[in-house]
Design goal:
3-stranded antiparallel beta sheet, alpha+beta, globular, 13 strands
Length: 563
């Protein structure tokens, strides 16, 4: 038996060759990495200061003590308790590695430019003329902007023209030309090119093409790649809640993209205020975003959830069922910010995005086309596609303009009774002024939109976008996005004109009633004044010393006091 036991031990010992082999990672004796969140203690499970404060608040807000406390004290104590719970929850999610947001280090996004649009109807055209004079944009080599604007409003001018080039005095290179101007621009903006677009005789669009500095172009990428962890944030009512790292990345990255847009919007609204600035509505903006790795138009497989989350952080919809593309902008997708997936971006936000190398390769002439467009290839792509982007933002901006007019009309209709009192002429004059300006604007806009849409469809003045399905889901039908957008705009402006006609009829009736009421009031006051004058005359004819002397003196005193 002992011999058999020794032989068994010899058989179980590893050989010299086996003992020299390094163990595989799965067979190593190293303990697995511990999750720091595994031993985390939530509020009320430990004995720290926060736990003690939570116990005290819980004691005060329970049982009969809750009834004795005033409402304001209960609300204050409840808010402190909720804040402690949320803060401990944030600490827990910060320890969890699975709650962190990560973008591949080799994936980089750059903003190649911004395009904003503002519109000037008959009620705003004077503001455009004032902006041209105030900013000295009327200095041109051949013909002034004032004359070009007047010619376009008469139907005999150019379809579009360059208004001014504004160079940042601290970063840009200034050219001593009549159309170039130097001024302090917002941080991250290198140059602004303003161009006028004649929609028709009554509607003019001004497009601002924003060229960013290298820092401004890379600002979104820096936030995109930052280490985002859970944070304690507050809602609109001031209540705290725990925001996980992934949603913190969504919010901050979208806010960094919006920060560029808002800086450009503020400068545009202050320098050239139009319909959107008057309505205090963000101007439509189109930005060009170019990535290094992901190519949406050549990728054939469905994107992974990580890719979708990365695109959602940028405010893009990712693996959606519909792709909007144009042969005039190869390699790029047109995307509109969705308020559900991108709540930090306003609805008037549009983006063209794609892979930079793929977009450059599909340029006519390839990479050689970038020569002469600047050292930054991303802004150079924006320079090449400036005309297409300008036409695109004017097209999508018309829809936003009609929505703004509809909102303004609805506000005037809903607040007319409260604003204009009891049909007094003074109040009705304000109402007539509002309705008159809106009616004049709509009459011209309807005619111009119809004509502009026919010309765009007939002459190919703008890129034609079509909506199709992604490569991994080719079952969806293809439909013309641009054509449907034009039809929708014509239907919308026709609806606004019909509503305006009905509203003006109501205004005419109200004005007639107001005039009758005011005429009756004036007539009644005239009769009262005539009666008072007759009474005074009768008292004057009565001689002194009569019984009516005292009454006449009293009436004179009352008349002097009143008048």
């Amino acid at each position: 038996m002992p011999e058999d036991h020794e032989s068994d031990e010899r058989d179980e010992r590893p050989s010299s060759d086996e003992s020299n082999e390094s163990p595989s990672p799965d067979e190593s004796d190293e303990p697995p990495a511990e999750d720091p969140a595994a031993e985390f203690k939530f509020l009320g499970e430990g004995r720290g200061p926060s736990d003690f404060a939570f116990y005290v608040l819980k004691f005060l807000l329970s049982s009969w003590r809750l009834i004795l406390l005033p409402r304001s004290v209960r609300n204050w104590l409840g808010a402190r308790r909720d804040w402690l719970v949320v803060r401990r929850d944030v600490e827990y999610h910060r320890l969890r590695s699975s709650d962190r947001f990560h973008v591949p280090d080799d994936e980089v996004v750059r903003v190649g430019g911004l395009w904003l649009v503002e519109y000037f109807a008959p009620s705003q055209i004077a503001a455009l003329g004032d902006a041209i004079k105030r900013n000295n944009w009327d200095m041109r080599a051949f013909e002034s902007n004032t004359r070009l604007l007047s010619a376009s409003r008469r139907g005999g001018g150019m379809s579009w023209w360059s208004i001014a080039n504004i160079v940042n005095s601290s970063t840009g290179t200034f050219l001593p030309l009549p159309s170039y101007h130097q001024q302090k621009l917002p941080e991250g903006i290198s140059r602004v090119h303003l161009s006028g677009v004649a929609i028709g005789d009554s509607l003019t669009a001004v497009v601002a093409w924003i060229t960013l500095t290298d820092e401004g172009s890379a600002s979104v990428n820096e936030v995109w790649h930052a280490d985002h962890r859970a944070e304690l944030v507050r809602d609109e009512d001031g209540r705290p809640y725990s925001e996980w790292g992934e949603f913190t990345a969504y919010r901050k990255t979208q806010q960094s993209r919006r920060h560029l847009h808002d800086q450009a919007r503020r400068w545009f609204a202050n320098s050239c205020p139009g319909a959107f600035a008057e309505a205090d509505t963000p101007q439509p903006v189109l930005d060009l975003m170019l990535l290094d790795k992901l190519s949406p138009t050549t990728h054939q497989d469905r994107w992974s959830p990580d890719v979708d989350r990365g695109l959602q952080a940028l405010g893009l919809r990712g693996s959606r069922r519909e792709w909007t593309t144009s042969t005039s902008l190869p390699g790029l997708l047109l995307d509109r910010a969705d308020t559900t997936s991108a709540p930090a971006l306003p609805p008037n936000t549009w983006g063209l995005w794609g892979q930079s190398s793929n977009v450059i390769a599909q340029l006519s002439g390839g990479a050689d086309r970038l020569q002469g467009s600047g050292p930054n290839p991303h802004t150079a792509v924006g320079h090449i596609y400036d005309e297409e982007c300008r036409a695109t933002v004017v097209r999508v901006g018309l829809t936003a303009l009609l929505q703004t007019i509809e909102d303004k009309s609805a506000e005037q209709r809903d607040t007319a009774r409260a604003r204009h009192g009891k049909f007094r002429m003074r109040d009705l004059a304000v109402l007539r002024e509002d309705i008159l300006s809106l009616s004049l604007d709509l009459a011209g806009i309807e005619r111009d939109v119809r004509l502009y849409n026919k010309q765009a469809a007939r002459h190919g003045m703008e890129p034609r976008f079509v909506v199709s399905s992604p490569p991994w889901d080719p079952d969806e039908e293809v439909w013309d996005f641009s054509k449907r957008l034009r039809k929708r705009q014509i239907a919308e402006v026709s609806k606004l004109r019909a509503a305006d006609g009905d509203y003006r009829e109501v205004l005419s009736t109200a004005a007639a009633l107001g005039s009758s009421i005011d005429a009756f009031r004036v007539q009644r006051r005239a009769i009262n004044i005539a009666g008072a004058a007759l009474f005074v005359a009768v008292l004057t004819l009565v001689g002194p010393g009569t019984a009516l002397e005292s009454l006449r003196e009293w009436w004179d005193a009352a008349w002097s006091w009143v008048f």
